[in-house]
């Protein structure tokens, strides 16, 4: 980041990220969220930002939570930033070998092309990675970017520093504890969603492209969207660890932007960690939080 950009970044931080009119949130909303979080058999972190007024509410907002596939959202931001700079093109061809398509990991891309030896566009690869949360697609994009640390440095250059992107999906699959190296605070993820919404990261074309990929997300239908009216528009990215041999799920997450019938938009980041309940119960926590926000506005 050049020195000339530093004042701009700090101005953004002051304009969008510092707590402003938190008292404008309904007291009942905080009470509802605290009740939901208090009843959970898990560690839960929440950040909510009403994106027109910047009214902000957080519960455990500065704690660190493993992201799992939520980190495919900042990865996509970094890739599309390079598209905007002319370094990549959405139409460029990416050759995929069989060695790129690792087994024993979630990969609709591998299911479609089990033998590899195929070339697809960067646009298609992003769609697999974001909308379908493809783990092999994620790691191919990390290699294109020069590794997770390059993506982390880019996100930090935006002024969002309470986030760590350290390892690939392949590395996370080698050992349970590795996932904790890729973490975010709920507040930081809310900040990133706010920057994305307010056109501070990408060109309009790239923003609209990523927005649609997130609206088309197929994973986690029972999370942010779970209790909302049918047809509600939610641009989101999920993350899931599954449970270990002790029945503990390190991460059941969903972050995104909800479009309300009033025309308002609300960024919601919910991280559910160390959950001892079934996955459906973990997802219900996220769904109830989103429904409480929807009802308030």
| Uncertain stretches | 1-11, 13-22
* CATH level 3 topology: Beta-lactamase
Name of the CATH superfamily:
DD-peptidase/beta-lactamase superfamily
Q: In percent, how much strand structure appears in the residues?
A: 15-25%
Helix residue percentage: 40-55%
How many β strands by DSSP?
10
Number of domains: 1
Rg value:
18 Å
Read across the widest sheet, the strand sequence of neighbours is: 2-1-10-9-8
User: What distance separates the N and C termini?
Assistant: 38 Å
Average pLDDT, to the nearest integer? 92
CA-based shape: globular
Distinct helical segment count: 11
* Structural class by helix and strand composition: alpha+beta
CATH architecture: 3-Layer(aba) Sandwich
Q: Could you state the order of secondary-structure elements as H and E?
A: HHEEEHEHEHHHEHEHHEEEH
**CATH domain class name:** Alpha Beta
Descriptive report:
- This protein has helices spanning 6-17, 27-39, 72-84, 108-112, 122-131, 135-145, 148-157, 169-174, 186-197, 204-215, 279-296, and strands spanning 43-50, 55-59, 65-66, 93-96, 118-121, 163-164, 183-184, 233-240, 252-259, 265-273.
- It is α+β, with helices and mostly antiparallel strands and 297 residues long.
- The chain has one domain (3-296): DD-peptidase/beta-lactamase superfamily (Beta-lactamase, 3-Layer(aba) Sandwich), CATH 3.40.710.
- The strands form 3 sheets. A 5-stranded antiparallel β-sheet has the order 2-1-10-9-8, with helices on both faces. It has a 3-stranded antiparallel β-sheet with strand order 3-7-6. Strands 4-5 form a two-stranded antiparallel ribbon.
- Helix 2 (27-39) packs antiparallel against helix 11.
- The longest helix has 18 residues, at 279-296.
- It is globular, with a radius of gyration of 18 Å.
- The termini are far apart.
- Residues 1-11 and 13-22 have low confidence and may be disordered.
């Amino acid at each position: 980041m050049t020195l000339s950009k530093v004042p701009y970044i700090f101005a953004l931080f002051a304009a969008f990220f510092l707590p402003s009119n938190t008292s404008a949130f309904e007291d009942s909303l905080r009470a509802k969220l605290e009740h939901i979080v208090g009843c959970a058999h898990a560690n839960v972190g929440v950040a909510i930002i009403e994106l027109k007024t910047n009214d902000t509410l957080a519960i455990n907002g500065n704690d660190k939570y493993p992201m799992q596939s939520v980190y495919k959202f900042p990865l996509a931001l970094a890739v599309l930033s390079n598209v905007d700079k002319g370094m990549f093109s959405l139409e460029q061809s990416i050759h995929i070998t069989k060695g790129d398509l690792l087994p024993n990991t979630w990969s609709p891309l591998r299911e479609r092309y089990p033998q590899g030896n195929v070339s697809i566009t960067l646009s298609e690869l992003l769609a697999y990675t974001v909308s379908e949360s493809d783990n092999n697609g994620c790691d191919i994009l990390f290699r294109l970017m020069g590794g997770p640390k390059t993506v982390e440095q880019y996100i930090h250059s935006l002024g969002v520093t309470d986030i760590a992107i350290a390892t690939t999906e392949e590395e996370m699959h080698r050992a349970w504890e590795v996932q904790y190296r890729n973490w975010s605070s709920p507040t930081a993820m809310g900040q990133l969603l706010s920057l994305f919404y307010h056109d501070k990261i990408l060109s309009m074309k790239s923003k609209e492209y990523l927005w649609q990929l997130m609206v088309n997300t197929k994973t986690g239908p029972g999370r942010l969207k779970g209790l909302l009216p049918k047809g509600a528009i939610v641009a989101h990215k999920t993350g899931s660890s599954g449970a270990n041999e002790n029945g503990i799920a390190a991460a059941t997450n969903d972050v995104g932007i909800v479009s309300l019938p009033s025309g308002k938009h609300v960024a919601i980041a919910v991280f559910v960690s160390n959950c001892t309940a079934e996955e459906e119960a973990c997802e219900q926590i996220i769904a109830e939080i989103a429904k409480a926000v929807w009802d308030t506005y």
